[in-house]
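Write out the bound-state structure for adenosine-5'-diphosphate.
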Amino acid sequence: MPRPRLPHWSVRVRILAVILAVTAVAMTVAGGTAYLVQRDRVLHAIDDHLHAAVESARVVVTGSGGAESDRAAAAPETAGFTDARTALEAVLARVLPGPRQSAIGILDGAPTYVSALDTDFHLEDDPAFLDRVVAETADGSVRLGTAQSSVGNLRYIAIPIIVQGSDSRGLFVTAYDVDAELAVITTAFTTYAWVALTSLVGIGLVGWYVAGRLLRPIRHLTAAASHITATDLSERIPVAGNDDVSALTATVNDMLGRLDTSITTQQQLLTDVRHELKTPLTIVRGHLELVDATDADDVRATRALVIDELDRMSGLVDEIGLLADSQTSGALQRREVDVADLSEQVFSKASAISNHDWRLAETATVVASVDAGRITQAWLQLADNAAKYSPAGSLIQMGSRLRTANRVEFWVLDEGPGIPEGMEERIFERFGRVDARRGIQGSGLGLAIVAAIAQAHGGTVTLQTSPGGSRFAIDVPTAQDGTPR
Ligand code: ADP
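---
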């Protein structure tokens, strides 16, 4: 199933969107909760005041307070009054409405008395509401309710005033304009909303700037990285500061360095190979051009020479392959190897090379995690060189030893002519030879292969040389992670 395409938002936009979304939700939840709590408190206070009005009316009419439980349920019964009218008048005169509150006295269904005080709104302005409360209290009980009236959103209480022995029915209604009561907190929270919105804009601007600043090194990194091409890997990205981004930059630089080395090595190898193959090809071509096809001896001699050159070329190609393999440390097949056993085996193979006095001088008693095949190949190459370049019958010593707690050395010591001064590094390079010494055949790849094998193991090749002999040693860690064993 194809994955849905996500919108292409930059990291900067995404960081900002998340910050703003989280802040907006937090502000809304905090503000909303506070508003609801405040609103609830106001509504409760209104109800408390309305209940208190029942109590006050009762005191006015009966001259005493009622039990807590029946405060809202039962209408005040008159004691000292002879009719509902006077009782209602007394209640209206004594139970006065507060701010944002209004009251009215209804006698026998008609609005008869309005409060003496000048109230913010007048219940008599909405006859429909009055009819409704009259109807609601027809059974003589106190009624607490909410109404959307033309004078406002009301929370009211209607208290019937009944006088025994009188036919008249009084009704005292007092109501709060809920919207006006809530206006104070509504104003406060509108202000809060504006402040929150302004803060959000502020946070957005600061966030945009800070995210941009933090991400600037990544933009530089991207620009620099896109600038660097495979053909020019020499450029490095400037590392600024000491944070995650600078660590990333340093890592990218390291990677570029490795890529650079590997590409340069490859290009160098190609140049070297082209150069090395050119000579035998020129020789072969020259001889083939000059051969006299009618002269059987000439043909035979040329054939031998061409085959010899072709053999040399194929040997060269094999060695180039070996070198390429040795340069990849991932191709190593490490396993635990008993160095003493390995030393015995390699020595017995080397000592088969004739014309020399071979001696195994020492063996290290240690187990090392190495590719035994590759170590054998490199060590034998050193032994072969020693045999090749030192006088016939001379002594060649070999040995392995623990150089430090976690490094082992495989060495070969000969009594040859040594390496001339200034050539000590050159001989380890590809095709690096000491002026085709005494006509001895060789490709100049042997020591390069040895060095590559040592490097793949995380080690080096060391050389001590004098006109009286050379000591080559492959020095590698005993464990891949370098811990002593
Ligand atoms: P090759 O032996 O094919 O020429 P190597 O890479 O094995 O290539 O050696 C490079 C050069 O180092 C040799 O040409 C030789 O001049 C020199 N060399 C190597 N080993 C010894 C040695 N044991 N004694 C003296 N010279 C050596």
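---
Residues 385-386, 389, 414, 416-417, 419, 427, 432-434, 437, 442-448, 470 surround adenosine-5'-diphosphate (CB under 6 Å).
The chain has nine helices and twelve strands.
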